[in-house]
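User: Batch of two.

Assistant: Item 1 of 2:
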Amino acid sequence: MGATTRALFLSCFHGGGGSEVTRRLALRPRYPSMPRRPKGAAAAGGGGGRGGGDLEAAGVAGNEEEEKVAMFSVSGMTCAACAGSVEKAVKRLPGIHDAAVDVLGGRAQVIFYPAFVSENRIIEAIEDVGFEAKLIDEEVMEKNILLCRLHIKGMACKYCTSTVEFVLQTSPGVQRASVALATEEAEIRYDRRIVSATQLIQAVEETGFEAILLTTGEDRSRIDLKMDGVLDERSLMMVESSVQALPGVENVKFDTELNKVTVLYKPDQTGPRDLIEVIKSATSGLVNASIYLEADGRDQHRYGEIKRYRQSFLWSLIFSIPIFLTSMVFMYIPWLKAGLEKKVFNMMSTGELLRWILSSPVQFVIGRKFYAGAYKAMCRGSPNMDVLIALGTNTAYFYSVYSVLRAATSDNYMSTDFFETSSMLISFILLGKYLEILAKGKTSEAIAKLMDLAPETATLLMYDHEGNLVGENEIDSRFIQKNDVIKVIPGGKVASDGFVIWGQSHVNESMITGESRPVAKRKGDTVIGGTVNENGVLHVRATFVGSESALAQIVRLVESAQMAKAPVQKFADQISRVFVPLVILFSLLTWLAWFAAGRLHSYPNWWIPPSMDSFQLALQFGISVMVIACPCALGLATPTAVMVATGVGASHGVLIKGGQALESAQKVDCIVFDKTGTLTIGKPVVVDTRLLKNMVLREFYDYAAATEINSEHPLAKAIVEHAKKLHPEENYIWPEARDFISVTGHGVKAEVGDKSVIVGNKSFMLSSDIDIPLEASEILMEEEEKARTGIIVAMDQEVAGIISVSDPIKQNAREVISYLKSMNVESIMVTGDNWGTANAIGKEVGIEKIIAEAKPEQKAEMVKELQLSGRTVAMVGDGINDSPALVSADVSLAIGAGTDVAIEAADIVLMKSNLEDVITAIDLSRKTFFRIRMNYVWALGYNVIGIPIAAGVLFPSTGFRLPPWVAGAAMAASSVSVVCWSLLLRYYKSPKIVGS
C-alpha cells in the first residue's frame, strides 16, 4: 500500500482532503444519482479518461471546480413520495449533477453547475411542485448539527425504548433519535441552536428514566477530567478561572456530583497535559486531575449494575429458600410438618406466619425496583415488564396476606398462601437480569479489543526553544497533544496518527488497514496510531489525537452501527406495542374462566388440589400467564445479534454501518463489481511502448508526460512515472503544457513546445479527426486480448505511438467469484474500460456477464435495471466514479483503500481491500439473520407454548399446572437464552476459499 493510498485511507476517517465531496453523499437519494452535464459544457478540468474509461475518477474530480453544492430547507414534505417529487423536479433541471432529499430533516442537497442553473431556479422548481424552499448556509448548518449519546438507566423492555425514542424524536430540534435496549444508550442527532444536550436529558427523565450524558457531539475539541482532592467552592472557582485563561479554551463546565470538569478547547492551541498542569498549579497541588473516560464510566455503570443485581439476588435467595422449604419440602417431613402447622392464633399456623415475615422484605425491599418501574411505566401510559411482574407478585402476596389474616380471625377457615410464589418469582427474575447483564456486556468485546490496539504509554521527546532535543519522558498515551513528537522504538506501537520527521523503518499496519506486509516508512510518510513498528526508530509528529484518530473514528463508526436498527426489528416493535395490554387482559380472562368453571362445577373435583379452592387455582393460572408472557426476549432478539455482528465484522476488517446494511446483505443474489481497483490492483503500470514515428523514446515520453502531468487520472500517473525512469535527474522539469483540455472518459490534449499533443483512446482520436493507421488498430486489438489498455499518443494530428498499460488482477479474484457462485450469488463486472480489456479480465476471473465502456451514470442505471428485475443488488467499488452506483445499490461495499467519497457512500467498508471480505460480509450477514430468526423463534416459542400451558390447557387432561415461580424462571431463561444465542456469533469464522 503506497503513501497515497494510506493518505486516502486516513482522510476517510479524518474528514480531510475530500470533506466537501464527503458531505455530498450525506443524504441518500431515493433515485440513482445521475451525474450529467448539459451538452456543450466546457470540458476543462484536472483529469481525463482515455482507454481505461473505468478510471475516470480524475475526470470527475477535475470538473469539481465548476460544480457547487447548495443545501435547501424544504417545508411541507410528509412522506417519501413528497421527497421523490422534489428530487425529480430538481433533477429535471439542466446543469444538475446530483440531488438528494431528506424528508425527516426537511432539506434537499443539490450539486449543480452555476453556469447553467442558479439557486433561485432550483427554489422555483421545488415551489412549482407545491413545497416551500429556502437556501441554507450549509457550513453554518453542519457546524450546529451535533450527535450526542446518552446512557439511559431503568429500561427493561421494548416498551421502554419505544417510549424514550418517541419522546426524543418529537423534541424540537431533534433530527433523528435511536435507542438501543442492548446497550442502554440513545444516539441523538440534534440542532444545538434549537435544543441542548441538557434539555434532551430532561426530556428523558420526564419519562421516568435516568439519563447520563456520554458525549455531546463536540468530541473533537472536548475533554472530561476527573478531579481528586480537596474540592470546595473556592478551589472550583480557582480551577475555572485558571483553565478559562488558557489559550484555546472555549468553555468550562463542572459536574460536582461526579467530580468532573468538561472543557471545550482548540486542540492546536492546548491539550490534556496543559489542562491538568494548570489545575494542579491553580490549587497548589491540592487537586489532581486525570482523564475521565466515557468508556470507563460505562464500564463502571455496568459493573455497578452487575454488583447490584448479584447482591439483590443473593439477599432474595436468603429469604426465598426458607420460604420454599417450609412450603414445598418440610411439609413432607412429619416432625417438621407438625411444627409448621401448629396454630399461633385461631387458624393461622406457624408456617404461614414465618413465610409472611420472610416474604415481606423480598416483596417490598428487594423488589422495590419493580414497583418503581411499574409506577413510571403506568404514568407514561406504556405498561412494560415491570408492570406484569408487579401485578403478578402483588396478586400472589396480597391474596396470601388476605388468606392468612382471615385464618387468624376465623375458627374454621383453612388458608392457602402463595408467599413462595411472589418471593421465588422475584428471585428468578433477578437471577435472569443478572445473567442477562453479564451476557450483554460481552456483546461489545470487539470494540474493547479495537480500543486496546492503542498503547498505554508513549515516549514524548522534549525540545528547547532552538529546536534541540533535550530529553524524553514516558507519558500516558491519552496525554498526547497535537504537534507532540513521539519516539517509537522497534517492536513498539505507534501512539497516535502523525507523520515521520526522522528515521526509517517498516510498520505493520495489518490491524488497521489489513495490509499483510510491513510498509516502509521514512521522513514525510504518514503513520496510523495502534500500528506496530517492526524495525528502526521513528520520530513521529502527532497530527490527529484522541477522538480525531483513525482508530477512534473506527470505534465510533462501530458504536453508531450498533445503535442502528435493522428493519426486521419493526416486527418486534409492532408486537410489543400491543403485547403487554393483551397479556394483562388474557390473564384476567384466564382467571375468570377458571373461577367461573369452578363455581359452576363444570369440572370434576379431582382437578382441584386438596389445599385449594377454585378461586385459588384460577389465581395461580392468571399469575402464571402474566409472568411467563413478559416480552423481554423479543426486544433483545435483534439488537444483541446486530451488536455482536458489527463488532465481529470490525475485527475481521469489515465495517458494517448498522442493521439496515446487515439485513440487506443477507438477501443479495447479484454483485456488481467495478474493475479497476476492485478486481484489479488499481495501480496501472506501463508494460510496453510501440512507436509509429521515427523519434527517440525519451522525447516521445517527454511530450506524453508533459501533457499528462496535469491529470490526476491513474493511467496518466502511470505514464508520468514511467517517463521519470528515462531521466537520471531526480527533479526533472517537464516542458510547459499550454491550453490543456481534459475530456472525461476519453483523454487529454495540450500544446507542448511546438507540437499539438493528444493522449487518449481510439474514439477520442477519431473525434479529433485523427486517422488511425491499420498497424495501430492491430496493436490495440493485440493489447485488448492481453487484458491491457492501449493509450494512443498523437502529435500534430498523426499517431506517434501506443503505450500499453496493465493493471494486475488481485490475488484470489477468480476463487472469490467461484465461491460467490456456490453461494448462489451472480457476479457481474461493469467498467468504463474498452470491451477487449474487459472481456479478457472477465475471462480470467470467471465473470461471464460484462458491461464495458460504461460511464458513472450508466453504472447506476444498470444497477437500477437489475433491481427492477427483482434482484437484490450489491455494488463493490472504490472510486468517485463508482459512487452513483454505490448509492443506487441495495447494498454498497467500498474498498477501504479507495476514495473517501466511495467509502462515505457505502453501507459496508472493506478495510483490508481484500475481495475475500465480500464473501465475509455476505456470509456474516446471513449467519446473523439466521441467529435473529432463531431468536424470534426462541422468544416467541416461550410465549406461544408457555402461555397456553400457564393458562392451564394441559390441566384438564393431565392435571399438570405451571406454578407462577416456575413461569418466572422460564421467562428469565428466555431472555438469557436469546442473548447467549447471539453471543455465539463471537466465534464466527470467515469462509476459507481455495487458494487463500
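Item 2 of 2:
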Amino acid sequence: MCSGFMATNEEMEVNEGNDLVVPLLQPPDNVAIDIPELVKNKDKKTRTVKFKVGNINCAACVTSIESAVRKLTGVESIAVSPLQGQAVIKYITELIGAEKIKETIEDDGFPVDGFPEPDIAVCGLRIKGMTCTNCSESVEHALQRADGVKKAVVGLALEEARVHFDPNLTDVNHIIEAVEDAGFGAELIGSENEVNKVHLKVEGADNPKDMAIIQSSLESALGVDHVEIDLDDHKVTVSYDPDLTGPRSLICRIQEAGSSPKSFHASLYIPPGRRETERHHVIDMYKNQFYLSCLFTVPVFMFSMVLPMVPPFGKWLEHKIYKMLTVGLLLRWIFCTPVQFIIGRRFYLGSYQALRRKSANMDVLVALGTNAAYFYSVYIAVKSMTSDAFEGQDFFETSAMLISLILLGKYLEIVAKGKTSDALAKLTKLAPDTAYLLTVDGDGNVILETEISTKLIQRNDIIKIVPGATIPVDGIVITGQSYVNESMITGESRPIEKKPDDKVIGGTVNENGCILVKATHVGSETALSQIVQLVEAAQLAKAPIQKLADQISKFFVPIVVFTAFMTWLGWFITGVVGIYPKHWIPKDMDDFELALQFGISVLVVACPCALGLATPTAVMVATGKGASEGVLIKGGNALEKAHKVKTVVFDKTGTLTIGKPVVVSVMLFSSVSMGQFWEMASAVEANSEHPIARAVVDYAKGLRQKLESLNEYVKEAKDFEVHPGAGVSGKVGDVIVSVGNKRFMQACNISIGPATEDYISEHEQLAQTCVLVAIDGHIAGAFAVTDPVKPEAGRVISFIRSMGISTIMATGDNWATATAIAKEVGIENVIAETDPLGKADKIRALQMKGMTVAMVGDGINDSPALAAADVGMAIGAGTDIAIESADIVLMKSNLEDVVTAIDLSGKTIFRIRLNYIWALGYNLLGVPVAAGILYPFTGIRLPPWLAGACMAASSLSVVCSSLLLQSYKKPLSVQDSKTV
C-alpha cells in the first residue's frame, strides 16, 4: 500500500555519521536542556529526569535509593540501573522538584552528577497593536514580569516576540494572557518543539472514533513525539524525531490504521504562512480604512476649503439653517463624525490601552489632537445654534484630514516595512516544490522513481538531481559528477565541482551532470532553514544603539503633550493680554482659536514611531542583504561592533591558507621502513579532523598502491589523545606513536637530533610546516606539509590596512613557517607556536589596550578566540563548533567577506544614525515651527493637517532610508581564482 513511498531499507535507521546529523549552523541562544516529558494526566504535569548516581555497587544500593525516593510526595516512579550508574525518575512538577530528589539521594549516601539544567522552552509570538518603541518596551516588561519567563525580546519592526520560559511554571496560554493584559494582542507563531512538525489532511475519517484510531496509531509509532487532532477540519499535526521517522512513514501509518471496509487516506497539508498572511491583512485593513476615511474627508475638505470660493456654492454653504448654524458647518459636522469616532476608533482604543498601562504612545497624541479639534468645533456648532450674532471658525476639516493622512502614512509604512525582509523571503523560496525519489533494492539498483513533494523527503532518501534542477535538501553525492551553482546560498559566483562523497546544499542549482544525492539534513535542519532562522533571530535582537531610542521614548510623549499645552497657553495668554497685534490673528479666528491650532499642530507633528523604527528596520535590511551575499550576521550587537574593529586577528590554516595541506617531503631518521612509518602516522592521524591529519591520511592512501608493505586498511589507534595546537598521540599495536610539532616533542621529553633540526630549519624557510613522528619516545622521521595561501589573501589584507585596521596572524605553527606565510600575504604582526587559549589570551590583551578586536578562524582550535573576540568571524567551511562560537559566519569561506562584514556594518550604522536624524529632525524642526516660532517674523504657520502629514512622513522616511541598504555593493568583488 505504501511501497511507493519507501526509498531504502535503511530509512528508519538512526544516522550514525555525526557529520551528517549535526546542522551546518546552530541557531543562536541555544539552551542545553534535558527535554521534559510533559504529560497531561488528570491535570497533573509530570516530568522525567535522569541523574548520574555514583557508588552503586550492588542490588542493595539500588533498593536503598529507590526506597528513599519513593517516599517523597509527588514521585510517580523511579528506576535505577547499577550498570549504567543512573536513575530515571518521573515526578509531578507541582508537588516536588528535581533539586529535592537530588538532595534525597545524596542524603542516602550516593553522590549525584549530571544534574539537569532547568527546562527552558522557547516560543515565538505575533504581537498586535504596537505603534512605537514605547509599546515594544511595555510588551517586553509585561513578559519579563510573568511567572516562569526567563527572557523576552520584542521586535517592533517584525512585530514579534521571542520568549524563553520554564514550562514547569507557565505555558504559552499564560504568556499570551500576560501580553493581552498589557493591552496588546498576541498569537503563537512557532515554538522549538515545532522544529520537526508535519501537517496532514485525512480523508475517510468521518467521526471522532476514526480520528481516535488514527491518533492512537500515530502515538505508538517509533519517533513520534506529539499528535494533535483537528476533528472539524480532519487534520492531524505530528511532531516527530527525523532520525527515526518522517512524513511519508507517518502517512503510511495512517493508511495502515484503516481496516476493511473503512480506509483512510492522508496527504500533506501546508498551512498558509502566518507572517505573510498577517502582513497582507494589515495592509488591506489600513488601505480600506484610508479609502473609507477619504469617502468622508474629501467632502469635508471640499465644503471647508474649495466650494466656499466657488459661486454659487459659497452662498449656499453660508446659508443659515437655524440662527448662526450654516449649511456648510452642519455638513462638515455630519461628515467628520464617522471619521472621528468610527474610523478613528483605533486611536481611542490604543490611547486607552496605553494610559491603562501608565504609558503614552502615538495614539495618545493623535487622539488628543483630533479630539481637541473636533470637540472645539462641536462647541462652535452648538454656540452657533444658540446665538443670533456669534461667528466662529470650526476645525472639522483638521480632525478628518489628520486621521486620513495618518492612516495613509501607516499604510505606506507597512508596505515599506514588508520590503525590508525581501532578501529573507527570497531565501525561503529557493527550495523546489517537488523532487525525484528513488527506491533501491538491497544491491543498490534503482527499482522505482517517484516525483514527490520536497516536504515528504526523509533522512537517508536517495534523490535524483537532473541538470538545471534545484537541490531540495542538504545531502552527500553518492553517484555522478557535476558542477553546482551555490551563489544563491553562499554568494560564491563560481560553480563548485561535486563528486561522490561531496556535500551539497539545499536551494542550490545543479548545472550540468546528473547526480544522486543521499539526504542528510531535512526540514529545519537544512543549511537554508538554519540561515533563515539565524537571520530571523538577528532581526529580532536589539542593537545597543537602540537603547538611545528606548530612553527617548520613555519621555517623548509626556514632553510633547506638555509642550503642546504650553504652546496653547502661551499664545492664548499673550493674545488676551494684547502682547501681539490683533492683525496677526487670521480672518474668522480669535486668539483662542489661533492658540488652539498651534497647540494641535505641536501634538500631531511629533512622531515617536520613527524613533522606534530607526534601528530595527536598518538591521532587518542589513542582515537580509548580508545573508544574500553569504555573510550571516547573528545579531544587532555583532552588526554594530564590526564597524568599530581596529584589529583583525587571522588564523592561518584554513583561513589565510586554502586549508588543504599536502605532503611535499618525507625524511626517515630511524630504521623503520617507509611503509611502517606511514602506517603508524596515518593510524594516529585518522582520528583527528585537523587539515594536516587529512593530508597524512590522503598521502598514506596514495602510498598503498606503491608500497606492498603498507597494509590495505588503516590500523586503529587506541588511547588516542589530542594536544591542541601541538599534536596527537595514541597506541598503535604495542607501540606509542606521537605526531606533532617540535614543541610537542620537547614537551614529551623526546630528544631531537641535529639531522632533524636541519630538516626542520630547511623546510620552515620555505613556508612549509614540519611534522615529527616519534615511535616509543624516539624520532622515527619527519615530513613537510605545505598549505597554499588563498589567492585573495594578499589583496584582502592590503584593503583592510587601507581602512586603518591593523592585522595579526595567530597560529600554532612554528615561527619560521608563520613568518614566511605572513610575509607572503602582507601581515607584519605574527603570533606563532601558541595554543588555542594563547590566542584567546592575546585577544584579551589587545582588548585591555582599548582595541575592538575581530577574530577570523575556521577550526575547533579557534573557538575560544572566536568567543573572546569582540566580533568572531567563522569561515563557513569550518567546523560546527567554530560556527556556533562566532558572531558572523562567512558562508563561502572567502576572505573578501571579512571586508564585506566590516563595511556592511559601517554602512548600516551610518544608515541608523541617518534614520535618527530623519526621526529627530522632523521633531526638532517641526515642533518649533508648529508652535509658531516663525509666525511673528514670516507669517508662516503649520496647519494641523499639514503637521499630521509631516508626522506620517517621518516614519515613512525612516523606513525608505533603511531600504536603501538593499542597494549595498561589496567593496571587494569576488574574483574567480584557481586553487593551487
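The first helix runs from residue 18 to 21.
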